Amino acid sequence: MNAVLLASLGTGFTFFMTALGAATVFLFGKKALSDRLFRCSLGFAAGVMIAASVWSLLIPAIDKAEELGKIGWIPASGGFALGVFFLMALDKLLPAFHPGEDRPEGVKKSLGHSTMLVFAITLHNIPEGMAQGLAFALAAQDNSKVLLAAAIALAIGMGIQNFPEGAAISLPLIQSGMSKKRAFLYGALSGILEPIFGIITVFIAGATMELLPWLLSFAAGAMLYVVVEELIPEAKLSGSHIGTFGTMAGFLIMMILDVALG
């Protein structure tokens, strides 16, 4: 199996889904995405990422470590903690914008409202790209159809969650006065880091298989940090159960995809 080609196809699909979500500006125009749909979408993304972190990253990290003769929980927990601290550091160093707020969280930067929105969501695509690159690298390294099916399930799940993310960027931008074409471009490009980091991670993982369990759990920690810090609080902001419903649905669908295909 060619890991780079597989990762390129997988992350290319998720990037396409982001662009497809951003293209909703041409359908809805300046109409706002309903609050309930937005909260449900955030919850769905959280559920997908939780399930992917467990089935596609942490469990394979433990299994791979044991295959290499290591104690499984050590790289799994160590890499997980490093992933959490990495995202915490980025949140401290870089501005993070939350929908519905006028000011960014974190270090003050001379960035516009629209730029902060795009930047915040784009930043969180890094662990998603890493996760896909690692999943395909693991499948290629073991030449395993089972692991390949799991990596494909991960890409499908990420693609499903990226559609509302693209819309969540482009629709608010057009409401702020930006042109449809420019809002679409910003929304689509927010997903560009996924294929970039997915392919880079394949090369890193290919250099030494000893690091693969650490890298898998690192991506899991980074993804779960995004879920706990950003997605779930935003999904529950309205006080309704729609965000919870979205999270349960996303987790269930991703679990089914991972187990059925893997």
Cα-atom radius of gyration:
18 Å
Amount of helix: over 70%
Number of separate helices: 11
Cα end-to-end separation: 17 Å
**Helix/strand order:** HHHHHHHHHHH
Characterization of this structure:
The chain has 11 helices and no strands. It is mainly α and about 260 residues long. Residues about 105-110 have low confidence and may be disordered.
Task: Provide key terms for this protein.
262 residues, mainly alpha, globular, 11 helices
At a glance:
The chain has 11 helices and no strands. The protein is mostly helical.
Strand and helix layout:
Blueprint: H1 3-22, H2 25-28, H3 35-67, H4 73-93, H5 113-123, H6 125-142, H7 145-175, H8 180-189, H9 193-207, H10 212-235, H11 242-261
Helix pairs in contact: 1-6, 1-7, 1-8, 1-9, 3-4, 3-6, 3-7, 3-10, 3-11, 4-10, 5-7, 6-7, 6-9, 6-10, 7-8, 7-11
